[in-house]
Amino acid sequence: QVQLVESGGGLVQPGGSLRLSCAASRIIFSSYVMGWYRQAPGKQRELVAFITSSSKTNYADSVKGRFTISRDNAKSTVYLQMNSLKPEDTAVYYCNANHPVGYNYWGQGTQVTVSS
Length: 116
Fold this sequence. Notes:
About 0% of the residues lie in helices and about 50% in strands. It is an all-beta fold. The strands form two sheets. Strands 2, 4, 5, 6, 9, 10 and 11 form a seven-stranded mixed beta sheet that branches. Strands 1-3-8-7 form a four-stranded antiparallel beta sheet, with no helix packed on it. Strand 4 and strand 5 (about 45-50) form a beta hairpin.
């Protein structure tokens, strides 16, 4: 079965950095749009960033200039480099794989907490 496994979350102080990784298995990774979403307590899940199969990227306004999404098709892995973290970035971060024909998969999530 398809698996998306996130890693790299944790506790970081405001202004710090984290790098999330999402390793995919049993999909033709290069053909998928890969995205990162997040969900804070009491809030709806929101899109953070996505990267297309041709490596075009798009970011939520709240993270532009601070976060960078990238992919390594040879490793079937997508990354989210998060810099200048703020307390409002605290959330569970989810990896998503979406194929143009409709296949859609989610990871289990990784907790990011930004606090002093």
